[in-house]
Design brief:
By secondary structure, the protein is mostly beta strands. It contains two helices and 21 strands.
């Protein structure tokens, strides 16, 4: 199978699971597991690996894959406050736990999940009709990922969505995120009043778990310290909502040691920069669609 610029072939991945290998004409290659439509690798034409994948990740067809780009839907973490919160769903919802199907249309490589594919138990817990389509578009220096949510039923439903991207770092001590100065954020490790990011970059010296709220419906940050040398990535994100949030996360040593699917020392070589709509639920009406777009591209350090 192929599009105008990307060939797609299927292989058996870890645990014998189905993997789609996307090969762009520039030389960039990506691997996407049908389980969760999780991108586990993007290696650019210059042989730069953008994504972190834990060596302890589970590939059992049931558990979320630790690393790469898990897709979070219909709730982030435990969800939101209020009666509409689907509290019986597992943390981060079901999208990263379900099997998606390949969908090539209009010269784009996509993956689809809808309400008929999530299993009886999840369907009871989330009784709405929907369709998710995750599109992966490769280029010489990186990739663009789009998550589209469509309400195919007759009832409005609330949801949260997040593109939970794990970036591969040379070392966490040399990493920083630029572009969030002046933004309001929720520090999940210190509950209380919202905080404001100062003028400096976000750096990592301890466990970090922040939600930078409402950065506008289009924004970008720069991540320095990627694996493989003096590389930086420009991460642009946008949504069809009136805002987009950005989660920044690193588990550090104690949290890492408590996670069964994450190596004790792996926090040194990763951080998550995760665009999404998570500060509050988004209400999607019948026949309406919502899109979240994340663009990750390598650029020269001087840029």
């Amino acid at each position: 199978m192929s599009t105008s610029t990307t060939n797609v072939r299927t292989i058996a991945g870890k645990g014998g699971m189905e993997v789609f290998v996307l090969e762009h004409e520039s030389g960039t290659v990506a691997e996407v597991y049908s389980h969760g439509a999780t991108i586990t690798s993007v290696k650019t034409a210059g042989d730069q690996q953008l994504l972190f994948l834990s060596e302890a990740a589970n590939f059992d067809g049931k558990s979320p894959i630790r690393g790469g780009v898990p897709l979070i839907f219909p709730k982030f973490g435990g969800g939101w406050e209020g009666d509409s919160n689907p509290s019986s769903l597992p943390s981060h919802g079901f999208a990263r736990r379900c099997t998606w199907k390949l969908d090539i249309a209009d010269d784009t490589v996509g993956f689809v999940l809808d309400h008929t594919m999530i299993g009886e138990e999840f369907a009871k817990q989330w009784p709405f009709k929907f369709k998710l389509r995750a599109v992966v578009q490769l280029g010489e220096h990186g990739y663009t990922q789009t998550l589209e949510v469509t309400n195919t039923g007759a009832a409005t439903f609330p949801f949260q969505a997040l593109v939970h991207t794990y970036y591969a770092l040379e070392t966490i001590g040399g990493a920083s995120v630029n572009g969030l100065a002046g933004r309001t954020f929720v520090d999940k490790l210190e509950p209380g009043a919202d905080k404001v990011q100062g003028e400096g970059d976000v750096t990592f010296t301890q466990e970090t778990d922040r939600i930078y709220r409402e950065t506008g419906n289009a924004s970008s940050v720069t991540l320095t310290g990627l694996a493989g040398g003096a590389k930086v990535a420009k991460i642009g994100f946008s949504s069809t909502g009136n805002t987009v949030d950005c989660v920044v996360w690193n588990p550090w040593d104690k949290k890492a040691a408590s996670m069964g699917d994450f190596g004790d020392e792996e926090y040194h070589t990763m951080c998550c920069v995760e665009p999404g709509y998570v500060s509050k639920p988004y209400d999607l009406g019948p026949s309406e669609s919502f899109s979240l777009v994340v663009d990750s591209q390598l650029v020269k350090p001087s840029l």
